[in-house]
Amino acid sequence: xxxxxxxxxxxxxxxxxxxxxxxxxxxxxxxxxxxxxxxxxxxxxxxxxxxxxxxxxxxxxxxxxxxx
Length: 68
Fold this sequence. Notes:
Elements: H1 2-26, H2 33-55
Helix pairs in contact: 1-2
């Protein structure tokens, strides 16, 4: 189960990064500035969602592996 949560977290980070970059690229156009900034904020929230869920206790954090 821990591996699945780690993979979902990784995918959320990638998708959030891509959405944020698309939003910032869109915001360069003056007519679409609000849409671009909204997409950038949405992408940031997607990327930060796994960390926020762990911080608020919705999901348990993945334990660190012991040192070898």
